[in-house]
Design a protein that fits this description.
The complex is a heterodimer of chains A (about 650) and B (about 160). Chain A has about 650 residues and is of the alpha+beta class. Chain A contains 19 helices and 11 strands. Chain B has about 160 residues and is of the alpha+beta class. Classes of the chains: A alpha+beta (about 650), B alpha+beta (about 160). Chains A and B meet through helix 13, strand 1, helix 14, strand 2 and strand 8 of A and helix 1 and strand 1 of B. Strand 1 of chain A pairs antiparallel with strand 1 of chain B.
């Protein structure tokens, strides 16, 4: 019953999306008069969007319930779940497969549309209607994809005795957290896309429009940032390879929308504050969500192999490719047709904050282009019969230096005035950050910088300067009166410096030891003394493991850590669970390998100084976004509250 | 030197186009140096690979060829595609499904003596997650012949 209810709800959401599109499109087509009349059209479309969001959520909850009840008469559950799985993974396993994750995708998209219908107040009525219409148009394509080629509710007759289980690599609390946050960000960008389409259709690109769009971009960007940070940390501790970013195509698929969204975030601020960069902002809004769709195509079509690609099915690939071409092509065609009607915004001088933000945007775009080419290149060559892989050497070599240059522009931007500034004055403000940077470089050099790679050396140097430079906008200000959105910017920019310092420190100072040792033996590395006490079997919920006990000492502290090698029976797989010991100045990371014939065990031991800064910095970036969102929107919320109070008093 | 109002948009558009072209050129030049091509042992024999160049070597681990070194963490093994065989060495913790008579893709480069030094091994994980190059690859342990669905398809087409 539940499966049928879920499927019915999904069909009805699709029908409502079609209705939403027809209402919005038909209304706008029939003329502007009705629109101008106090948004009569809007009040018609709005409830449809809300109902669509509610129904698709119901459909998702049905699937969730099926997974929680381990209903093996549903094919998806039988293929991807197992009754003996811990409850958390039954729950999170809902989106640990192709169909479920696509249902999560359309649910987020439906809810985002409902949120735009409910909470958006600043947008002109006709643009609002067009935005909801565009959102419905995108949703419709993905509903069709689910219903026609990836039905999550398909029954299995006869029902399976039990399920085949979830990929053990995914059986980790990270699964409950990483995909939902990433998807909210990823799919949240569809709102920016719909706004851009709506603005183009109704010829309404100006500062007021940008101020309406900004909070939606910010919210999606914050979630995307958190999702990427969570994914990076998850991969770091779960895969046991000691790395935090592998330039895996699937990682790139999440990085590309983030790069575009970061550029968009900055250009929409220029548009909102200074009414400049109109066409460019619209273009970026289109690109950002296009990158989300390209990412989905790469991941869901099965043309890539990775732990994220659940199923290989060429029909699905062509379906998503068709959607991709329709939406991106349509939006670009609309942009081409209407860009002439977008009037040019305000002017600015070559030396101004606008110019620096343009540089930031261009560098982000170049990095995006380089990542996109590197990700697609293996697919293109394969079409010609050559198998090629493009890995870290390519990406590091180009994105590293570009990111460092971008960091410098990031420091200069907030210290430069809008519209017009003097080169000499800006240079004066940059003096201290520059001196700190040089001082950092000098200290590193004395401490043995010649042993580092040039990129980590420069990274640490730039991180020092950027750290100071990003808090420089607070100097000579009354800190209490400093607006919250300035704090947000400072925290986010400081987060970039913190993260950069972590990345550079990890690559410059990490020490690794690979050794085979028997219980009772000792090893010393990077100031740590590790004693291998014993190793023995233990059992978990749905796995058994060999677990080592190691006593580790450094300075006066003594800890016991437990690296494991886990065996799962459904499906039969072995995973290694690294033992992590976090100190303020780094992490000890120990992996238990296999046992040798002579009784020794392989051990891989890393000491990674300041590696945690990478993720703390990432979280600071997201926190900065949250502060900015609150700071910018608080006034609007207060106003709305007062209004509703006033209405209540009148009633 | 204020920019004329008509010109600013044009200037920005030109800069943007230059940036995009720049990205393309940058990517192309780096791809030429850094892209790692996939080689089967027979490709190595026929085409030759210069020492130090990063490649991916893929094939089957020859039965009985895995030898553990005294340090416990280095292994030597042979990779074959049925036509040629290449000696390889790896230091580290090998993936669980790295076995004899089973597929492997090794990332690394050749040393001066023609031994492939792998810095990463990708083994067939399960049917849902395996290196793309190994898809549908079968190895017959008695005849030492390999066959792949892909190859067969390609041969049929020819």
């Amino acid at each position: 019953m539940i499966a049928e209810l879920g499927l019915a709800a999904l069909w009805m959401s699709a029908a409502l999306a079609a209705l939403q599109l027809v209402l919005a499109g038909g209304g706008l087509w029939s003329g502007k008069k009705a629109v101008a009349e106090k948004g009569a059209l809007l009040s018609g479309v709005r409830p449809v969007a809300v109902a669509q969001g509610a129904l698709v959520t119901l459909s998702f909850l049905c699937l969730l319930l099926l997974f929680l009840r381990s209903d093996m008469s549903v094919a998806l559950v039988a293929l991807n779940s197992h009754s003996a799985k811990p409850l958390l993974y039954k729950f999170a396993g809902t989106w640990g497969n192709h169909e479920g994750s696509m249902l999560l995708w359309v649910m987020v998209m439906g809810l985002a549309g409902a949120a735009v219908a409910l909470f958006e107040r600043a947008l002109r009525h006709d643009t609002h209607v067009a935005t909801l219409g565009a959102q419905a148009a995108i949703s419709l394509g993905f509903y069709a994809f689910l219903l026609f080629s990836s039905n999550p509710f398909a029954r299995l007759n006869p029902a399976a005795p039990d399920g085949q289980g979830l990929n053990p690599l995914l059986q980790d609390p990270g699964l409950a957290f990483h995909p939902p946050t990433l998807y909210i960000g990823y799919v949240g960008l569809s709102v920016a896309f719909s706004f851009a389409v709506g603005a183009l259709l109704t010829r309404n690109v100006d500062a007021v429009f940008a101020r309406a769009m900004r909070p939606w971009v910010l919210a999606a960007w914050v979630m995307l940032t958190i999702g990427i940070v969570a994914g990076s940390y998850w991969a770091y501790y779960e895969l046991g390879w000691g790395g935090w970013w592998f330039w895996d195509p699937v990682e790139n698929a999440s990085l590309m929308p983030w790069l575009a969204a970061t550029a968009l975030l900055h250009s929409v601020t220029v548009l909102a504050t200074r009414d400049a960069l109109r066409a460019w902002t619209i273009m970026l809004a289109v690109i950002a969500f296009s990158m989300s769709m390209v990412g989905t195509f790469l991941v869901r079509s099965g043309i890539l192999t990775s732990v994220h690609a659940f199923a290989v099915d060429p029909q699905r690939g062509s379906f998503i490719l068709a959607l991709l071409l329709i939406y991106i092509g349509g939006a670009l065609a609309l942009f081409g047709a209407r860009v002439g009607t977008v009037r040019e915004g305000s002017q600015f001088e070559p030396m101004s904050r606008e110019s620096l933000l343009v540089i930031n945007n261009l560098l982000l775009t170049v990095i995006l282009g380089v990542v996109l080419i590197g990700t697609l290149y293996p697919l293109m060559t394969e079409a010609f019969g050559h198998q090629v892989s493009v890995g870290p050497p390519y990406f590091d070599r180009i994105t590293g230096p570009l990111a460092l240059i971008m960091m410098l522009a990031m420091v200069a931007g907030p210290l430069t005035r809008w519209r017009k500034d003097k080169v000499g004055v800006v240079a004066g403000r940059l003096l201290w950050p520059l001196l700190i940077m040089i001082a950092t470089g000098a200290v590193l050099f004395v401490l043995g910088g010649e042993r580092m790679s040039i990129l980590s050396f420069l990274g640490l140097m730039v991180a020092g300067g950027v750290a100071l430079g990003s808090i420089a906008p607070l100097f000579k200000r009354n800190l209490r009166r400093t607006p919250l959105f300035v704090w947000g910017m400072v925290v986010a920019h400081l987060g970039c410096a913190v993260s950069l310092a972590g990345m550079a420190a990890d690559s410059a100072f990490t020490s690794e030891k690979l050794i085979a040792m028997a219980p009772g033996e000792k090893v010393e590395t990077a100031g740590w003394k590790l004693h291998f006490d014993k190793v023995g079997p233990i059992a978990g919920d749905n796995w058994s493991a060999m677990q080592a006990d190691m006593t580790v000492r450094r300075g006066g502290s003594v800890d016991i850590i437990h690296p494991q090698s886990r065996f799962f029976s459904n499906p039969p797989t072995t995973t290694s669970e690294a033992a992590l010991l976090t100190r303020w100045n780094g992490q000890l990371y120990v992996v238990l390998g296999e046992q040798l014939d002579d009784g020794r065990w392989q051990m891989r031991i890393w000491w990674k100084p300041f590696v945690t800064l990478i993720w703390y910095g990432g979280l600071m970036i997201a926190l900065g976004g949250v502060l900015t969102l609150i700071g910018r929107e608080r006034r609007g919320w207060a106003l709305k509250l007062r209004k509703s109070h006033a209405q209540e008093e009148w009633a | 030197m204020a920019m004329k109002s008509k010109h600013q948009r044009l200037v920005l558009a030109v800069i943007a186009i230059i940036a995009v072209i720049g990205a393309g050129l940058l990517a192309a030049s780096a791809l030429k140096d850094e892209a790692a091509y996939f080689y089967a042992p027979n490709d190595v024999k026929v085409k030759g690979v210069e020492p130090g160049k990063a490649i991916r070597l893929g094939g089957m681990v020859v039965g009985g060829s895995i030898k553990k070194q005294a340090d416990g963490v280095t292994i030597a093994f042979d990779v074959t595609d049925g036509k040629a065989t290449v000696p390889a060495r790896f230091t580290g913790i090998a993936p669980d499904l790295f076995k004899e008579n089973s597929g492997v893709v090794a990332e690394g480069s050749f040393d001066d003596k023609g031994v492939f030094i792998a810095n990463n091994l990708l083994a067939k994980h399960d049917e849902r997650y395996m290196p793309r190059e190994l898809e549908g690859l079968e190895y017959n342990a008695t005849t030492h012949q390999m066959s792949s669905e892909r190859q067969m398809k390609a041969e049929q087409q020819q």
